[in-house]
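A note from the maintainers: we've had questions about how concatenated examples are separated. There is no special marker in the raw files; a new sequence line simply starts the next protein. For clarity in this README we add a label.
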Amino acid sequence: MGVELLALAASTSLLAGWRLYLVTFVTGFAMRLGWIDLPEKLATLDVLANPWVLVISGAAALFEFFADKIAFIDSLWDGINTAVRPLGGALLALAIVDPGDPAWQVAAFLLGGGASFLSHSGKAATRAMVNTSPEPFSNVAVSTGEDIATVGLLALALANPVAAALIALILVVASLWLILAARRLLHGVLNRS
């Protein structure tokens, strides 16, 4: 198992915690157009280029794009996806690692799911804090930033997985900080009541 494959698995898992459907769609679409040539070890990811997978992930990404811009709808959407995104991230990581080594498969599934859950939790915590703002523009700005960051980091992960993994590590630290900040904010709000 190479460092680059491990870095790619880590990066895509983290991004799936933010935007699972967008990651699935962009990766599959790029594969369909021949922009991404998969090494033989990643042949299982070829399913992402299937027309049905592209339609479903594209429709879900489009729905998420708009739902994520509306305060409180985004929190509802995040609640629904609390189980879906970590599982999707775990499955993406599982598809990237060497299928001949069960130990790596189990490790990738567990770490991929954990990474997705962590980034999803950081995203949901951020949204909970942003939703306390009375104006609607901060939610749109944060959501648009997530869209841009996801596409940019996914492109980087495909072009240079090691650099993307370093950025992913920074995102893990940022996600932990956001979760703790949201916890402090919630604790402060509840203690005022």
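[label: protein 2]
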Amino acid sequence: MPPGVDIEDPNAHRPEPIDTSVTDTAIDAKTLEELRQIAARYPQSRSALLPMLHLVQSVEGRVTPAGVEACADILGISSADVSGVATFYTMYKRRPNGEYNVGVCTTALCAIMGGDDIFERLSKELGVGHDETTPDGKITLERVECNAACDYAPVMMINWEFMDNQSPDSAVETVTKLRHGVEITSTRGARICTWKQAERVLAGYPDDRADEGPTSGPASQLGVRLAAENGWRAPTPDEAAAALAAAREAEGEEGAK
């Protein structure tokens, strides 16, 4: 760890580069063909790099030198270009990731509602800190930035599926079940799959879970319900234009006084 970098700092990107000493690879002919398929989806093939890296992780369990080279060769760019992207975004891992990536939101509202307490309790129970993986390879624990679920704070995500309205006790119970092979279902979504399976979905290869479970809940729908109850609606384009014109006219009259 470089001097001055605190691994517990949730705002710090992992400083280490891709481990070039890793020579083993699980990337085979099938994976290379799927990488080409992803590249072919885009008018400018370089735009495919992000999902391609997710596919690499679905096979390798992290971004490896072989994965970097495969992406670079297919896209016709340098390995440095690929590495620059892979080491910028925190969703791309340079160390082997756990079977379940547990991200605890500790930003703003979630922190106020108990996110920090949840993280600290999980860290103590698992014996790992931010961005570290348990010795059994089951759980990688992270502090994460806003999960866009403030209406259900505090929120934890497992392989990017929501676990809403958490407490330290409920978080520990959920993670313990995962470590013992118990199937868990998101509070607002699908059954929890493995991290590698989720990475394949992020690469653009859907599984059979997309329509499982609710995608929103009463807290998220409150604004829509209030609007319906009060007869509120968004203005039409003509109404908006007329209101803007009237406001500008009023401003002009006020300025002339």
